[in-house]
Write a structure and sequence with these properties.
Radius of gyration: 21 Å
Order of helices and strands: EHHHEHHHHHHHH
Shape: globular
Largest sheet: 2 strands, antiparallel
């Protein structure tokens, strides 16, 4: 790969989170517990939706897909971040750096589209309840999931094809604990001003536009509910508050990471950890603790697992 683009750099240096042994141990335990929570929480949602026929509806199918993407997005960076805590020199090969960037933006793009699809599902269910079964049929649900993947892959490829062909012959310190397009581009041996603008427009402005579109759509839903029945407003707000919380947790760090040039690495690290660790571990809690159907289904599934163990 480096021979194709003329690079002499075969590896990149990542930034360690801390040099203190005490903090390394503390962060190791902290991130290990959170990553375990990400795996168990998101997989439990997927398994619950699969094995409960009552949850085979567009809303829960989209939620299961969101859980899978959260797990995939977290897995692109968190395992390596944990393993690098006790490493004296955090090195990542050129190929692995490129692959990490690609999959970060694939999963990030898919999650962005899934959140839009979930907003559309809630809009249809709340504002057009009589037409909901017709509009959000299984074919439409499958179309939204496939479209999310196509757009996510297109989003990643549209940046990756430019970066993979850049010549890297100088410094190789990424300045972060993971590889990402904005930081890696700056290490190229040529003027990348135009390419940096493309990345900002692709990831930053799209994140901003999608974020405000989603917030406006949720406000529109609440206004529509209030016009028809003010007594249902609190119920609608309770339902949508979980979606709004997830939107804020996912999009705000994305907008800061790709639009605002950070003066400090600590701020960049903080927002990256929010996106890769905090959001994926909170999403299962947000969607299950505030959803009666999911709580009932999970309790039943847990009871079935316990009973099956007792029988064996």
């Amino acid at each position: 790969m480096d021979q194709v683009n003329g690079s002499v750099v075969t590896e990149f240096v990542l930034l360690g989170l801390t040099q203190s042994l005490g903090m390394q141990v503390l962060l190791f335990l902290f991130f290990s517990v959170l990553y375990l929570g990400i795996i168990l929480g998101n997989l439990f949602i997927v398994v619950t939706v699969i094995f409960n026929s009552y949850l085979h509806t567009p809303m829960y199918v989209l939620l299961a897909n969101l859980s899978l993407i959260d797990l995939a997005l977290s897995s692109t960076t968190v395992p390596r971040m944990i393993s690098d805590l006790f490493s004296d020199c955090q090195i990542i090969s050129f190929h692995n750096c490129m692959l990490q960037m690609f999959f970060i933006h694939v999963t990030g793009g898919v999650e962005m589209m899934l959140l839009i699809a979930m907003a559309y599902d809630r809009y249809t269910a709340i504002c057009k309840p009589l037409h909901y079964p017709t509009i959000m049929n299984p074919k439409m649900c499958m179309f939204l999931v496939v479209a999310a993947w196509i757009i996510g892959v297109t989003h990643a490829v549209s940046q990756f094809v430019f970066v993979i062909n850049l010549p890297f012959c100088g410094p190789n310190n990424v300045g972060s604990f993971y590889c990402d397009f904005p930081r890696v581009i700056k290490l190229a041996c040529i003027d990348t001003y135009k390419l940096e603008f493309v990345v900002t427009a692709n990831s930053g402005f799209i994140s901003m536009g999608t974020f405000f579109l989603l917030i406006i759509s949720y406000i529109f839903i609440l206004i529509t509910v209030r016009r028809h029945s003010s007594k249902h407003l609190s119920k609608a707000f309770f339902t949508l508050s979980a979606h709004i919380t997830v939107v804020f947790l996912f999009f705000l760090p994305c907008m800061f990471l790709y639009v605002w040039p950070f003066p400090t690495k600590s701020l960049d690290t903080f927002f990256a950890i929010v996106d890769f660790v905090v959001t994926p571990v909170l999403n299962p809690a947000i969607y299950t603790l505030r959803n009666r159907d999911m709580k009932v289904a999970m309790i039943r599934l847990s009871q079935q697992l316990v009973n099956s163990r007792e029988v064996t």
